[in-house]
Amino acid sequence: MDHKVIYDDGQVKWYVFGRDTQKPNSIIDTNEYAIEAGDEVMILDPGGTEIFPYVLSSVSEVIGLEKVTKFLCSHQDPDIFSSLPLWMALCPNATIYMPRIWSNFMSHFGKECSSNFYPVPDKGVDIRLGNENLNIIPAHFLHASGNINLFCPRSRILFSADVGSALVPLDYPFFIENFEDHIPLMKGFHERWMPSNVAKSAWIRQIRSLKPTMICPQHGSIFKGEKMVNQFLDWLDNLEVGLLSHD
Ligand code: FE
Fold first, then answer.
1. pTM, full prediction
2. Which residues have CB atoms below 5 A from the ion given as ligand 1?
């Protein structure tokens, strides 16, 4: 599994982990992200059980596990956090932020971890990591009926969970190089997995107001810079979602 530091200003550091060449082909590739601020680390969508050993070894290479105090679980899908009990065995005191409506479902991955759950209200919540503020913001129906994203005001990086996701080959760069070439890799994913044009439009309005410098999805590659962020938001604005192609 590869990793890259995508932001570091001496106060906040963002890592992406992904491009897992050890995983079986039957498992969709995922990106895991970590934010380091002071003596705390938060892992965003830490991944499924099947890839846990690879994520753990890659994370351990660059981050002391004793610093991991928080996890974000954007929604309930198994590739997001079915590794829950494995992580909790290593970080038993960590807090897990997840959409309010999924907490009882997430308990199916490990009910003994439910005392670590922080059910995020529908309107989101502001949290602290080290000395930094982080905003957990709503992204409901994108694609899950309870779905959260995370915005870091200092770096202006948005973790967008499945929004912006693409199915890319394992040798594809972490940062998108050509937006037009990237469209075919994400179009079908959004048409099928995003069920609501109304929710999509509301999300785009919310995200435009934040002026992110990067949009970081859970599959695929990162939209970096104002130009590419706006290209993506404009493209998504014009895309009809909730389509069934029957292929
Ligand atoms: Fe998902």
1. 0.97
2. 77, 162
